[in-house]
Amino acid sequence: MVSSAFRLERCPLDEAALRDALGVPRIARLDVGASSNHAPLWRKLDVIASTASTNADVAAAAADGAQEGLVLIAEHQQAGKGRHDRKWISPPHAGLEFSVLLRPRVPMRSWGWLPLLAGIALAQALDVHCPTPVRLKWPNDLLLGVAPRKTAGILATMVPKPDPAIVVGIGVNVNTEPAELPSVQATSLGIESGRAVDRAAVLLDLLSQLEAWYERWQCHDADANACGMREVYRQRCHTLGKRVTLRLLNGSSLVGQAIDVDGTGRLMVANDSDLVPVAAGDVIKVG
Known about the structure:
The chain is of the alpha+beta class.
């Protein structure tokens, strides 16, 4: 039985406190010219009561020339989406729904690793807030518990013009109660830990991990092997070593053994006759 204290402790996020914790007011005044490689990443943070989609809002800001490091958090999303336009629904003040704006200094052909990078950062951030195992489901879901259930999702949106950018949206079930979850295959940090969880602490830990991995990845010229990201992802990935069924973008299905994640972030699947690299798809069955 989950305590009703989760609902009682659903307080709004304190925008000023979050900005202070990240040093955003100071960061916003920095010159982003020659010293940008050494400046903190997060330059602007806004908390809004409600919006249709933080990804759409940040993508529009990117198209208007917004600087890298924008963080937009919504206490409620009216039309939040995951991959393949699936709805992401969460009660106000129960979870975290936010998007960040990145403008990587590496070739765009390497940007496919960014959703996986965000997954690693999220998993490591949640380690300190959850007593149960934290695992990743390729390519963009985070699972909690001994019998893993979905707790978070990641959606990356490309903004090609005028200057290429990528928006990474993250949704986390923090203090969501069982009756509020979309299915029995979902869970929340509160459910797994048996207590209400501080959303602000989770957010700050995640942004810290995301910044660290993002800079490490860029400093190694987006080489997932050299920066250690590929090995960390392999260790966290619940999908690897299991028989999986994938729905591919063309509507077809692929069944086989998930063998590895390659240097570009593709899932390597061994079927009856071949080793198939999958750059984009949906794992609809594991085991």
